Structures are given as structure tokens and as C-alpha cells.
Amino acid sequence: LGVHKEVDAHLLAHLSQKARNKWDFMEDSLHNSSDSRSIPANERMYEQPEPVTHNSVVKEKILQRKSLQLHHQQQDWQESPEGQKMLEFRRSLPAFKEKDAFLRVISQSQVVVVSGETGCGKTTQLPQYILESEIEAARGAVCNIICTQPRRISAMSVSERVAAERGEKLGESVGYKVRLEGMKGRDTRLLFCTTGVLLRRLLVDRNLKGVTHVIVDEIHERGMNEDFLLIVLKELLHHRPDLRLILMSATLNAELFSSYFNGAPTMHIPGFTFPVRAHFLEDILERTGYRLTPYNQIDDYGQEKTWKMQKQAQAFRKRKSHIASAVEDALEVAEFKGYSLRTQDSLSCWYPDSIGFNLIEHVLCHIVKNERSGAVLVFMTGWDDITSLKDQLQAHPLLGDQSRVLLLACHGSMASSEQRLIFENPEGGVRKIVLATNMAETSITINDVVFVVDIGKAKETSYDALNNTPCLLPSWISKAAARQRRGRAGRVQPGECYHLYPRCVYDAFADYQLPELLRTPLQSLCLQIKTLQLGSISEFLSRALQPPEPLSVQNAIEYLKIIGALDENENLTVLGHKLAMLPVEPKLGKMLILGAIFKCLDPIMTIVAGLSVRDPFVMPSDKKDLAESAKAQFAARDYSDHLALIRAYDGWRDAEAQQAGYEYCWRNFLSSQTLRAIDSLRKQFFYLLKDICLVNNNSETYNTWSHEEHLLRAVICAGLFPGISSVVNKDKSIALKTMEDGQVLLYSSSVNGCVPRIPFPWLVFNEKVKVNSVFLRDSTGISDSVLLLFGGNVSRGGLDGHLKMLGGYLEFFMKPELAKTYLSLKMGLEELIQKK
Ligand code: CDP
Ligand code: MG
């Protein structure tokens, strides 16, 4: 410990150099050809103009030549027959009419807010207008436009589209970059990237050297990264008066952003959507022969009861036919408004996971049978629901008939061949039905949609700051989102939208969705604030568009202190610095680092990759038991989901080597797509760790102890602490308890979820989710000694601080014996340190 500080300083100096090299490795062509590597990041903040030298004159000439070349290329394409055809299409988009006005306003103002209906051409056209006009002004080789997207899939698909519109291959003047993946070259001038990618660039290049335009897209979604980026950019604009910032939004809360940027000019692109008729539940029910008393007539309890009796009588009359049960589902939805819709805060608690599938089925049948042609877009809450509904519909005599209906699911991680089908028109009068999540609201546009079915819910992460627990609950969407969903039906002709909830529910929706910054844990964000040297975390976040609760901020800071990323004074520790360089959650980053230090990197990389992609074990609802027992085989009495993941992955890697990977996945209920993603992520992790000097080329040297299962449990514990629950085996059940939540439960998909007893006193877990009870998703059993030695963070306030915290835990869980053991362990350690 005596040399600790010195080592810190040394590592830090080394690290900052390495960090820049890493950026170069990842982001090479983002930088202009001028070399910024030799200037330390903090000095680059306020740079002096370069003096005119022979070199700079030569450089200038080269750039001029490149700009000229770009201009010729652009002209050639635009004059070619294909180019003409493309131009004709582009000119038909509403954005085209505003092109000149747009270019004028960005030349006059540093910040511009643009809003416009989805599909009017904001994302594909506006960045392109800038690029084209820069090229025409012979500045092609010096302009550097970055357009951020909240989602990977949109960054990828939009860049592909824009490259095609320019008659180029992706990676020439137009490219994309998403986490750990990208397609761009030295001469890429317009880059579509995820917001996270731009934020990581800011870590090592605070001034965005060489960047001429930043376009932040879909700001109305109010994602955490976007809100964070806006705070940083707002500050940066003072230091970079030449930088242009364009904010793009689908819905019309442009004023909010404009006033945040001191009254920046706003621009609206009028859309050309056709009118869409909205049907609410009452109306839909009426069409099927049900009458529902409107909500505003049910004022008191008595009337509500009458309404219920009416409903029962009607249901009885219909004798529970198929449709009746569908409508029952719907009525159930309508019914709960009587309890809670007046108090907005409890909206999300009342409603079961998904609206009755039968009702959706019923409405789809109605459309297929009775309505004119046109594709149908169904908004669901999540992937699970989409798959289950798709299964149900496929079994239906009409909707499952492939000669009449083409059923498609739309999801961010689906294969690109399947993606393409979504945009294509099916032939021969087949009706296309696309089941999608809220990503089809704004990020992607399916042109031929005429009917929209909206269940009014979206799965949304929220964050319970009081209990410090993230929750994943389907909650009601906002009015803005409902309008947006409705609008998707009017792209090519007048459309119809079936909102499967009563009008009164719609009236109770919030106008806009709560920004993510106000509903998620802020740990990674706080780490980034410190790394970017943006001052006090609380002060910085108080400058947000809508600042988060002080309690949430405090929780996040406290967490970072517990895991050792921040010291008592809120300064980044060496660990914190390294964690900020790894594009994974802090706890997973810590696990990786410890995996390298304790030489068990290979399996730890698998775990971290698995936890940051998604679970490769698939649990189809109809074969749940089989799938669970397949997973249990990998656990082999380990009582660990994380060790099961390692086994499953290792087995797959061996099977792949013998070309039997697919069969292996099929037999073991594993997703080969996910395993492949894990595989590639593992490789990336290794490079990243090499970059921050934790490993060298030889991966073998970091695997000396990879087969030591106890050590793996210890490293898992060190990473996931304080995600810990005590285990008490009872006669017929197992009682689990965490400090924040009290009693908790395990998901049945966990290998520990269906065992009669767990022979470990503790479980560590990565994720807990509050649904109605708190559930642990995954877990690993650990012993007392592992908890004592690896739980917590010895560097925090020295051993005393560590003991105090761990002591608090042990006391809470009523383990005084363990506390005593810890005390003697501590004294022994101190003695040892003194001797050394
Ligand atoms: O961003 P915004 O919603 O305003 O529209 P956009 O994404 O720029 O799309 C404008 C138009 O380009 C759409 O209406 C589609 O017709 C077309 N487009 C396309 O054909 N293929 C894509 N991958 C993206 C857009
Ligand atoms: Mg867009």
C-alpha cells in the first residue's frame, strides 16, 4: 500500500497515452490527417491556431486536390441515369423544399433545431445536403460531419441508404460506426454513429478536433446519452465557435431544445402524411357488438358497478366465444381505469404484461377479412411478446395462411435478410403484417403501412431511486408516442389506427415520455463525467435539460465509490480510469480487469460478453421445461448461471471447430447468433485490455488459473458486489434476501431457480428486476471466504473503510461470526503489510 500512490501516478501517465492510441486504433479516420496524438488531451482543449509552415502549405494543397476530386465524383453521379433517378426520388421528399432554407440557417446560426414528420427526409437528406453543399463549395475534404443515432440498427441502415443515394459503396464518403463495429475509411466525410460512440470519442478528443458539423438525431426520444451529449456540446460550442450543431426531432417539442440552446432558431419540415382515422377501444368493441359505458359517465363506485354488471351480462350472452374472450381481455383493460387512471403515477403497476393477444388476433382478422389492402403494423411491448404472438397467429386458420398473410417480426438484432423483407411489398395480394416494438415509431419507416394496431404500451426501463433498483415494466406510452404510432398508417394513403385502449386511457397519457436520464441508474454516465473532467458530477448533471433527482445521482456516486472507481473525494481512481475506457458497464469492466490480473481471463471474458450481449440460452415458451433442463446440464452442480454460460460457450466453440455448432445449439437450446456475438465481443475485449496495458499479445499467459472454479467465483463476486443476496435453505423452499429489497426471488430460467437447496451461503447476481416482486435473473453461489476477500473494495478508505462497509452487510445479514473472522483477517493483513 505504501507504494500505491506512486504506482497510481505512473499507471495514469501511461494510461492516458495508451488511451489515445486506443482511440486511434478504433477511430482512426475520424481524426483528420493532422496528428493530434502527441498533444495531451487536456492541452488540446484550448488549442492555438497552427503556424503557417511549409508542411501546412503542402497539406493545404493536398486537401484542395481531394476536394476537387470529390466534387467531380459527385457531379458525375448526379448526371448519370441512375443518379438522376435517385435525385428525382430525393426531390420528392418534403425535406427537399426546405433545402435552401436549411442550408441558409445553418450558415447563419451555430445551433439549429429541425423537426418534421417521420419519413420526411431528416435523417437521410439533411446530413447529405450539408455534405453536398460543402463539396460544391470545394470544402469536401475538410468537412467532417457526424450524425448520431440512438440505435445501432438505424446508424447502419441509414448510412447504407445514404451511400446508395450517393452512388457509392459504404465506407467511402459515407460510413458508420457503432459499438465495436464499423464501416468507414480514411476519406469518410459523413459518419453515422451511435450516440455512445461519439461520447467515447469525446473522452479522448474533448474538442472534437476537425469535426465541422454535429447532428444529433431523434432528440425527442430523450435518451440518456443524447441528453448527456447535449450538456457536453453546449459547453463545447463556446470553445468551438466554428462548430455547427443540428438537432433533429420527429415530434414537436422543438421549443424545449431551442430554449436550452439560448433561443436557437427552429425549423419545421411540413410532412405529407394522409389523415389517419383513430379507433379507440369503445369504438372497436362497438363494431363487434359490445357496448361500453364511456369512462366519463362512470364517476362513482355505484355506476362503475353497474358497468361491470353490464359487462358480465354481455359476456354471458356471448357464451365465451372466441371473440368474447378477446373482448373480455379488452374489457379487463378498460376496467382497471376505474381504479387508477386518475392517478398517473400508478399507471404502470396495474396492467398485466401484455394486452390480450386474442384481442389483437381479433382485430387483425377483422382487417384481413373486411378492410382494403395495405400492410399492417402492430406495436408490441417487447421481443418475448412478439414471438409468442407470432406463434399464436401462425396457428390461426386465416392469419396463419401463408397464401393470404405474410407475418413478420421486426427487431433491432434480426438478420439483415429478414430486415429487408419488412420493407418489401409482398406479391399477389398477400397482406403483410409486421409485429414491431416502439423502434418502428420513428427510427424506421415502412412505407406501405395502412393499418396500425397500437396496444398503448412499451417496455421501458425505469429506476426506483429509493430502493436503488432498476425496473423493467411495460408502461403506458405518451400521447406523443401514440400520435407517432398513428401517423405510421398514413404514409401512402389515408389510414386507420386501432388503439386497443379506451379513449379515457389515452387522455390520461403523459404528453411526452419521461427522459431516460430521469429513469435509469447513472453509474456509467457519472464515470464518463469524471473522465471528461467535467467537474463535480452533481453540478454537471444539474445543467441537463431536465436534471435527474439528487438521490439518483448520489446513489450512482456511492456505487462507484463502493466498487472502487471513485475515491472518497469523488476523484477517479486508476480502476475508474480503466473502467471508463471499456465500453461495458463498470461492474463488468471490473470483472474483465480482475480476470486479467488473476490470470483467468478466458472464462471471465465469456461471462462479461454474455452479460453484455444477452443470454445465449433460449427459453421457448412451449418447451420451457426442456430448455431449462438443457441449461441445468451445463451447471453440473455448480449453482452458477455464469459458470453454465462458460461451459455452454466452450462446448459450442469445440463443436464449431468440428462444424457441428448449429446442431449443438439446437440440441442445447442455445442461440448460435448470440454465441457468435459473444465470440466476437470476446476478441474485442482482448484488444481493449491490451490497449490499456493489462494483457500482452499472448493470451495463454492470462489463463494460468482459468480452470480454478473457486477463483472464477471470486472474480465474479468482486465484479458483481454489492449485488449479493443471502441464502437460507428451508424445508421446502430457499429464502433469499438482499439488503435493499428484503425477500427476493429467482427467475425459473436461472439454474438456481429450481434446485431444492443451494449449498452456498451467498449468491452474487448481475441483474435484479422489479416486476411485482424483485427477481434475480442470474446468480452464482459463493462462500463466506470469497465474500470476505473479494466483496467490496479494499482501497476504499483503507481496510477500515472496507470493513465498515462489509461489516454493515454482515451485520445486516446477522453474521457476527463472519464479522469476527473478517476482523482477524484484517489484522493479519495489516501485520503482513507492516512487515513488508
Ligand atoms: O428521418 P426521417 O424520418 O425524416 O426520414 P428518412 O429516414 O430520412 O427517410 C426519408 C425517406 O427515405 C423515407 O420516407 C423512405 O422513403 C426513404 N428511405 C428508404 O427508402 N430506405 C431507407 N433505408 C431509409 C429511407
Ligand atoms: Mg429519422
TrEMBL record:
<dbReference type="GO" id="GO:0003723">
    <property type="term" value="F:RNA binding"/>
</dbReference>
<comment type="similarity">
    <text>Belongs to the DExH box helicase family.</text>
</comment>
<keyword id="KW-0378">Hydrolase</keyword>
<keyword id="KW-0547">Nucleotide-binding</keyword>
<keyword id="KW-0067">ATP-binding</keyword>
<feature type="domain" description="Helicase C-terminal">
    <location>
        <begin position="359"/>
        <end position="533"/>
    </location>
</feature>
<dbReference type="GO" id="GO:0016787">
    <property type="term" value="F:hydrolase activity"/>
</dbReference>
<keyword id="KW-0694">RNA-binding</keyword>
<keyword id="KW-0347">Helicase</keyword>
<dbReference type="GO" id="GO:0004386">
    <property type="term" value="F:helicase activity"/>
</dbReference>
<protein>
    <recommendedName>
        <fullName>RNA helicase</fullName>
        <ecNumber>3.6.4.13</ecNumber>
    </recommendedName>
</protein>
<dbReference type="GO" id="GO:0003724">
    <property type="term" value="F:RNA helicase activity"/>
</dbReference>
<dbReference type="GO" id="GO:0005634">
    <property type="term" value="C:nucleus"/>
</dbReference>
<dbReference type="GO" id="GO:0005524">
    <property type="term" value="F:ATP binding"/>
</dbReference>
<feature type="domain" description="Helicase ATP-binding">
    <location>
        <begin position="103"/>
        <end position="270"/>
    </location>
</feature>
